[in-house]
């Protein structure tokens, strides 16, 4: 400082030396000082607070939380949870000198599945919700590391990263985490620094790993890799809350559309349009509701509902009659009831325009690279992660090599000592002290100090011959390990191979399906597909290529006749949003939107696809349009001559061609069976001569679409495959011959073997029974399901699955189907009964009890819901293939089993006439080898049906007759006011008696 005379003075310490820190006063220009101090503060915020490191994708607070949980508290995924307050205190006291709220908030976010695509912390307790609810106080919640977080910290103890002192120089903490996980891309990051901000969206782990593997494979020419090449694997961001992401963005009216995703990946910044996922549901004539099932990322559901209510109250959005939140643990469901006559498209467009159902996500790929903030492209981010892993593996290998050499050196000394054991023991015994013994060993036998110490530390039990052998084996393994590590360190290409191998293992364990749907359009261009209701329908495909569909919610007695008449190739359950893949006999595939198939009448496959009328369509399979959880697994293809092939489901889903080849079929063969598997299942093939083979699907490696197949079963001359399907380990195999001899046998009796064998006897074939015509895997507890046997003349013969006798594997079965001399069985279908599923009416009432909002439903909707209860099975959307429904050489086969419908009450057999009319309402029975007696079936009482509200006689009459068909006939002597039959009838019919035809009861 200066005195009054302008003479400069400095603070001086006791020893006379200037002290710059204690008592120093310095005159400085305030402008310059403000600039310098602010820059120091800005860099501190940028480097040590707000921006993530490109290598591990973490900010310092997140890194310290994970490190403290792993190193200090040992809270790995296999340990019990501990109080969050304990974790926060550990982080604050040792590594992060800031507020406890900041640490706890950061920890909470890492545990929220709606904030992070792959949460790093496994929380127990209230960690907040998508409704905007705050997490409980840290004294109430508990946490531990998630299993995937182990990948962030693995090898940290192997000197793989640099370290620095903590804030008080008492402990050490890592500069970075080893991070085998590409965390920055898969979980994203957001933060506001000083003069800059980052907003990195989350991505799908499987897609990122595939892109990294591609880059590693082409690392010698990494400069030639383009963003377009990487986008073949990384389609775009994948948000934890799903939603719809528009690929294109219109910059200005009239200008060319810009690929917003490609722009963000190329230059590091872009504006993405996110939108909620919604569809329409018809609830009555003239009334519709909008159902929202997914929200844009970081949208507060409660605030959204309040915003919609305010807009309706202010009159800015018209046509909304009711708004309710029906979300539960099974998923999100926001229902917007529209008034009668309101235009659903217009209302939904207004919701997108005025509410957070549609919003912009500003992509900003900003991260720290060598401590400096850098705006990165997708390619650069992937490249920096690979470089990070190269460094980690190099340092890890050097550490392991050093340890291996040290251990090998010691083991070598122990082995030498065992060779001269007597001299070593004598030397040690003659030594006065341990130090003398060590020096004598080193001097007399040329042992190193480490070897000499190890010899002195060796226990007497190591002198046994077996222990010597163990040392020799250990030394051999150590030498191999050393050679491997030295070779790895000398060969950078092998390091890249290790990185790729580890990444693929991570994908195998933690990879999942994409959640966010990417739409190749600009915002606001809604299509019919976007607004289709998710309606379950039956889809039938005939031998002539006729396609039909019928809503599952509208079953009728004629469904059995339709199965026999119009479903020779396929009959399956699908959603109106699904694709129907149809396959020709020569292995070609084409896709059809299920909603394009007419409900009334039929349409030719040739009119909807690239196939012609001359192409024989032999199989069909429903696949979801959106590649979500259903895309996991494979598609299994089987030909008539026993050739099998397995392709990835994603390969078929992602193929945009109007027609493409899925398998190369040889001359004289036909593709007949197409079904889905999960990757670790077993499949079974059945032949016409009664043989079958069961083997693991993993014996058939996944192949590309145009390739041919491999042998699945060796067939005898003139034999052919009549069925192929996935095995239910606890289920049964139904087989039926052309003469109608059928049986059920446990699949446990069919042991698995290698593929391409001759198989084992499944059904004894004789001249009396005829060859096996069809087979079918019956899942566990399918006794109350319907079986429909279809004859060559198109006659459908229904039967309960329990009525087919359970027999051994190699017997001929029992004649169950009465046939004329010129007729034969050609196919069998399973129609799943509906058990325990709530109807639409029951679900609505359950929701009403949860949300006190009045609901009004039409008579038509109520009665429809009461008459049929639908449920989507675990195998929805797949054809469960059956046997060929046609004689050999006819060129057509059946396509699959049916999951559910009602049976036809007008059966030709005596037993069928005595069956209860409504199988859907019968309780499940135990599996028995013989069918129930007539007396037993009569004792079964169907639960009372709810009374439909009838508005007009015209509406009531057909409704009443349809319900009467489902009520057991009133038996003499069982009527009266308390009679069982009378009470049934009165519960069903609430229309004038003149409109109902019933039998007169005889006098008692």
From TrEMBL:
Does Coiled coil appear among the keywords? Answer: yes
Q: Which GO terms describe its biological process?
A: DNA topological change
> Which Gene Ontology cellular-component terms appear in the entry?
cytoplasm; DNA topoisomerase type II (double strand cut, ATP-hydrolyzing) complex
Coiled-coil blocks: 461-488
Q: Which PROSITE patterns match?
A: TOPO_IIA (PS52040)
Compositionally biased residues, Low complexity: 889-901
| Top EC group | isomerase
Show the ranges annotated as biased composition (Basic and acidic residues). 835-848, 858-875, 902-918
Task: Quote the Pfam families the UniProt record gives.
Answer: DNA_gyraseA_C, DNA_topoisoIV
SMART domains assigned to the protein according to its UniProt record, in alphabetical order: TOP4c
Q: Which domain of life is it from?
A: Bacteria
Q: What is its EC number?
A: 5.6.2.2
Q: Give the reactions, separated by semicolons, that this protein catalyses.
A: ATP-dependent breakage, passage and rejoining of double-stranded DNA
Residue segments, region Disordered? 835-1004
What family does this belong to? Belongs to the type II topoisomerase GyrA/ParC subunit family.
The entry's protein name is DNA topoisomerase (ATP-hydrolyzing)
Gene (UniProt): gyrA
């Amino acid at each position: 400082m200066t005195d009054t005379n302008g003479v400069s003075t400095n603070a001086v310490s006791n020893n006379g030396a200037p002290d710059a820190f204690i008592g120093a006063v310095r005159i400085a220009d305030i402008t310059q000082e403000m600039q310098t101090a602010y820059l120091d503060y800005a860099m501190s915020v940028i480097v040590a607070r707000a921006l993530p490191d490109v290598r591990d994708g973490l900010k310092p607070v997140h890194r310290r939380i994970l490190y403290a949980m792993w190193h200090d508290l040992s809270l790995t995924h296999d340990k019990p949870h501990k109080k969050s307050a304990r974790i926060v205190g550990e982080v604050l006291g040792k590594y992060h000198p800031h507020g406890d709220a900041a640490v706890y908030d950061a920890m909470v976010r890492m545990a929220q599945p709606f904030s992070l695509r792959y949460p790093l912390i496994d929380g127990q307790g209230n960690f907040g919700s998508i409704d905007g609810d705050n997490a409980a106080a840290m004294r109430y919640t508990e946490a531990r590391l998630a299993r995937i977080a182990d990948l962030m910290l693995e090898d940290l103890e192997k000197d793989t990263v640099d370290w620095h002192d903590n804030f008080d120089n008492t402990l050490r903490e890592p500069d970075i985490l080893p991070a085998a996980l590409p965390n920055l891309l898969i979980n994203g990051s957001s933060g506001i620094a000083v003069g800059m901000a980052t907003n990195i969206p989350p991505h799908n782990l499987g897609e990122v790993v595939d892109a990294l593997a591609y880059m590693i494979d082409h690392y010698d020419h990494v400069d030639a890799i383009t963003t377009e090449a990487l986008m073949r694997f990384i389609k775009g961001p994948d948000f934890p809350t799903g939603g719809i992401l528009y690929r294109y963005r219109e910059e200005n009216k009239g200008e060319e559309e810009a690929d917003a995703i490609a722009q963000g990946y190329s230059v590091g910044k872009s504006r993405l349009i996110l939108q909620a996922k919604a569809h329409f549901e018809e609830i009555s004539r003239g009334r519709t509701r909008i159902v929202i099932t997914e929200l844009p990322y970081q949208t507060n559901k409660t605030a959204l509902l309040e915003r919609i209510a305010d807009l309706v109250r202010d009159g800015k959005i018209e046509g909304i009659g009711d708004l309710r939140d029906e979300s539960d643990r099974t998923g999100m469901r926001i229902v917007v009831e529209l008034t009668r006559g309101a235009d659903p498209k217009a209302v939904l467009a207004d919701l997108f325009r005025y509410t957070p159902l549609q919003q912009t996500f500003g992509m900003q790929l900003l991260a720290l690279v060598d401590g400096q903030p850098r705006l990165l492209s997708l390619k650069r981010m992937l490249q920096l992660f690979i470089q990070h892993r190269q460094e980690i593996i190099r340092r890890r290998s050097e550490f392991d090599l050093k340890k291996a050499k040290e251990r090998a050196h010691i083991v070598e000394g122990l082995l030498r000592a065992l060779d001269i054991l007597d001299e070593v023991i004598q030397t040690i015994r003659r030594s006065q002290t341990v130090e003398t013994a060590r020096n004598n060993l080193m001097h007399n036998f040329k042992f190193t100090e480490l070897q000499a110490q190890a010899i002195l530390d060796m226990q007497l039990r190591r002198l046994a011959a077996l222990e010597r052998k163990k040392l020799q084996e250990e030394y051999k393994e150590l030498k191999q390990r050393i050679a491997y590590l030295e070779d790895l360190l000398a060969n950078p290409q092998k390091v890249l191979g290790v990185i790729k191998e580890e990444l693929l293992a991570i994908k195998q364990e933690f990879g999942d399906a994409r959640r966010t749907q990417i739409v190749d359009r600009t915002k606001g261009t809604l299509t019919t597909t976007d607004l289709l209701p998710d309606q379950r329908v039956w889809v039938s495909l005939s031998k002539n290529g006729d396609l039909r569909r019928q809503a599952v919610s509208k079953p009728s007695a004629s469904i059995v006749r339709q199965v026999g008449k119009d479903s020779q190739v396929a009959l399956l359950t699908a959603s109106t949003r699904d694709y129907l893949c149809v396959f020709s006999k020569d292995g070609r595939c084409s896709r059809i939107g299920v909603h394009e198939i007419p409900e009334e009448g039929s349409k030719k496959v040739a009119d909807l696809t690239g196939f012609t009328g001359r192409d024989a369509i032999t199989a069909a399979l429903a696949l979801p349009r959106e590649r979500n959880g259903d895309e996991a697994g494979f598609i299994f293809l089987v030909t008539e001559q026993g050739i099998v092939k397995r392709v990835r489901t994603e390969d078929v889903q992602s193929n945009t061609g109007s027609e493409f080849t899925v398998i190369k079929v040889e001359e004289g063969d036909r593709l007949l069976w197409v079904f889905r598997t999960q990757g670790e299942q077993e499949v079974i093939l059945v032949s016409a001569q009664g043989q079958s083979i069961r083997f693991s699907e993993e014996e058939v490696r996944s192949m590309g679409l145009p390739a041919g197949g491999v042998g699945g079963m060796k067939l005898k001359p003139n034999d052919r495959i009549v069925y192929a399907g996935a095995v239910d380990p606890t289920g049964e195999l139904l087989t039926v011959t052309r003469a109608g001899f059928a049986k059920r046998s446990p699949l446990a009796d069919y042991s698995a073997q290698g593929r391409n064998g001759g198989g084992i006897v499944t059904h004894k074939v004789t001249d009396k029974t005829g060859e096996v015509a069809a087979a079918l895997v019956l899942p566990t507890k399918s006794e109350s399901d319907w079986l429909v046997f279809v004859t060559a003349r198109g006659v459908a013969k229904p039967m309960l699955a329990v009525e087919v006798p359970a027999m051994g594997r190699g017997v001929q079965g029992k004649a169950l189907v009465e046939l004329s001399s010129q007729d034969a069985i050609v196919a069998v279908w399973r129609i799943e009964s509906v058990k325990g599923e709530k109807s639409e009416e029951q679900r609505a009432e359950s929701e009403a009890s949860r949300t006190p909002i009045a609901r009004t439903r039409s008579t038509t909707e109520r009665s429809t819901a009461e008459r049929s209860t639908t449920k989507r099975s675990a195998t929805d959307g797949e054809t469960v293939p059956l046997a060929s429904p046609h004689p050999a050489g006819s060129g057509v086969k059946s396509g699959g089993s049916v999951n559910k419908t009602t049976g036809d009450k007008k059966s030709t057999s005596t037993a069928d006439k005595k069956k209860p009319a409504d199988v859907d309402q019968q309780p499940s029975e135990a599996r028995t080898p013989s069918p129930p007696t007539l007396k037993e079936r009569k004792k079964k009482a169907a639960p009372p049906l709810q009374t439909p509200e009838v508005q007009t006689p015209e509406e009531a009459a057909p409704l009443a007759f349809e319900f009467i068909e489902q009520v057991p006939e009133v038996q003499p002597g069982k009527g009266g006011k308390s009679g069982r039959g009378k009470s049934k009838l009165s519960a069903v019919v609430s229309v004038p008696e003149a409109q109902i035809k019933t039998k007169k009861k005889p006098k008692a």
